[in-house]
Amino acid sequence: MKVAHAVAAAAAPAGTTFTVVSLLTGMIWGAPTWGTAFTWDPRIVFQVVMLLFFFGCLALRSAIDDQSRSDRATAVLAIVGSINVPIVHYSVVWWNSLHQPPTLMRLDKPAIHITMAWPLLTMLLGFTLYLVYIILTRTRAELLRRERGAWLREALATEGAA
Amino acid sequence: MKAFFDMSGYGVYIWWAYGLTLGVMLANVWWGRRALRTARIEARRRLAMEEQR
What we know:
Low-confidence stretches of chain B: none
Number of strands of chain A: 0
Shape of chain B: rod-shaped
Largest interface: A-B, 30 and 25 residues
Distance between the termini of chain B: 67 Å
Oligomer: heterodimer
Low-confidence stretches of chain A: none
């Protein structure tokens, strides 16, 4: 459970920055394609809500000094925020949206040409591995910050040997 | 070459999006490594203090 809190603390900054990237690159793309950088489209709105949850998690974690209380409070907010994930995904199905309906994650065969599907899937794999690297690096830092005594001595000795 | 960068007139949008994404990716690597370096230094200091006691 201690490691889960450390992973949550490590994942929040990466999640926040990538949500910002998705919104900003969407705006850059939307300007020539839709003729507007921002509109009150359901997917965009719920993506902004997601960003607010990320900001909330970061702020809450740094606002509470007591480690275990801060962990628990942030975990509750993260669980509530995770309800937003399927809403972001299905927002294009449930409401009228400028975004196209799902092209890959659907029951029917993918509505994307194979020449575009492969680069997309390759990028998906690449970004996933990249995020795993970022989260593991930060989790390592977070565990070193939290631990004490024999475990820490052993961890530092292993790191020194590596 | 010019056609590649021009991207049928959408080059300015596409390269900005690529640049922004790459910038955030590099920043995340740098932040992560800096956090690990700081955590290591602080952990060594904390351990030394614990052993002194």
